[in-house]
Amino acid sequence: MSSKLSDRIQSYQAATDYKLLNRVPIIIVVNGRSFSKATQLLDKPYCAKFSECALSTMLKLCSSIEGAFFAYQFNDEIVVAARNDQNDSTSAWFNNSIQKICSATSSIATSHFNQKADVLGLNMTNEESIFTSQVFVVPNIAEAINTFIYKQQQNFHMSVQSACFYNLLNDHDKHAIKEMLAGLTIDGKIDLLSQECNVKFGDYPIVFRRGAAAYKVPKIVDEVVKNKWYLNAELPIFTKDQDFLMNIFAMGTDIYRAK
User: What global pTM score does this model have?
Assistant: First the structure.
């Protein structure tokens, strides 16, 4: 094989092999593609089986991504925080290659979600649900924490909107619902949900209202303390319990809370 030809082809490939900035927090966002159509047959606004599939997929991503230490899941989105700067010998996952990280995480999520959905008999309209992935870095731990505060706030707004829309759909058409919700504050939508549908938003599961997270907690295994992945589906409100995220992001694990 011609060395000149090899060098030329490899140079084309290298030209778009973009790398993440090293030694800063990494944020990986995995989303379901066209899930609004794929989930048309599921219970709305909240489906327990779908939530179980998404949570299982989050744990799979956490255990597969090198340097992952926290993840947050809501709706069809999973957000993972990873680090490669704990010490001088820490190596970056896939050498910080954006293409490889996106390819690997979307493939892992797609494969695991479909396997879990098949086991649970989740009634998706697509034969195979597909996830896409995006990766970026933030300048410091404070901004990584702010990312997840924003995501939880986004989830709250989306959950209120979804709860209103699907409950109002029993007695109103889509156009009328859009007009009813237009311009309303979050509190206004929650009041409308209660008055029009006799549904209290606070009665929905916490995992629907606040999302869920995965992180490591110390557990005793064979008389040795080890950090193991833990799924928390009863999260606090991040802005009200500021120590919750700070402990995890500063030390890599949550404080020991179990009895």
Answer: 0.91
